[in-house]
């Protein structure tokens, strides 16, 4: 099933990177080099990743990583948390550290040592990308599972 979403009159598709032409992936890498300050100019970034400057300019506004597309959105994640003191607190602390803004928190009663939790939050001021944030959560003691449910 093909899934797409629309934003500001444009249609977007979520595509696995392995099927994309190399120039798209290299354009995203060049943008990341510029963002991180590892390249000072577009020419420098393009040379580092092996594309022309004109190819960069042709695709720079059309391709981006998933995390860039989620900036300024409302994200909902589901978590499976071990029934241990402080696990939810560590999750919320991690969200606060990256400047996410909590909108709702729902947690079920623990059954067989684990509890389901759902958190909706805004990403507009987050200091890291969504993928990085989710990986941080997965690394927390007591977090058994993290799933991205939706973005609006």
What does it look like?
- The protein is an alpha+beta fold.
- It folds into 2 domains: 4-64, no CATH class; 74-151, 2-Layer Sandwich (Alpha-Beta Plaits), CATH 3.30.70.260.
- 36% of the residues lie in helices and 28% in strands.
- The chain has 6 helices and 6 strands, in the order ββααααβαββαβ.
- It has helices spanning 22-36, 42-49, 53-59, 66-69, 87-97, 130-138, and strands spanning 4-7, 10-13, 74-82, 101-107, 114-122, 143-151.
- The strands form 2 sheets. A 4-stranded antiparallel beta sheet has the order 4-5-3-6, with helices on one face. Strands 1-2 form a two-stranded antiparallel ribbon.
- α1 packs across α2 (42-49).
- The protein is elongated and about 55 Å long.
- The protein starts with a strand and ends with a strand.
- The mean pLDDT is 88.
Mean pLDDT across residues: 88
Shape: elongated
What is the number of E strands? 6
Broad CATH class of the largest domain: Alpha Beta
Sum this structure up briefly.
With 152 residues, the protein is an alpha+beta fold. It has helices at residues 22-36, 42-49, 53-59, 66-69, 87-97, 130-138, and strands at 4-7, 10-13, 74-82, 101-107, 114-122, 143-151.
List the defining traits of the structure above.
alpha+beta; Alpha-Beta Plaits; two-stranded antiparallel ribbon; 6 helices
């Amino acid at each position: 099933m093909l899934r797409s979403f629309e934003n500001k009159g444009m249609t977007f598709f979520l595509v696995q990177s392995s099927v994309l032409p190399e120039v798209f992936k290299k354009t995203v890498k060049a943008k990341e080099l510029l963002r991180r300050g590892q390249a000072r100019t577009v020419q420098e970034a393009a040379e580092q990743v092996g594309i022309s400057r004109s190819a960069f300019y042709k695709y720079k506004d059309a391709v981006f990583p998933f995390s860039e597309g989620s900036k300024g959105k409302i994200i909902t994640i589901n978590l499976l948390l071990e029934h241990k003191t402080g696990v939810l607190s560590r999750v919320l602390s991690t969200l606060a550290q990256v400047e996410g803004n909590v909108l709702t928190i729902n947690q079920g009663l623990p059954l067989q040592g684990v509890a389901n939790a759902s958190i909706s939050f805004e990403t507009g001021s987050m200091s890291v990308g969504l993928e990085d944030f989710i990986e941080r959560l997965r690394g927390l003691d007591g977090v058994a599972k993290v799933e991205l449910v939706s973005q609006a």
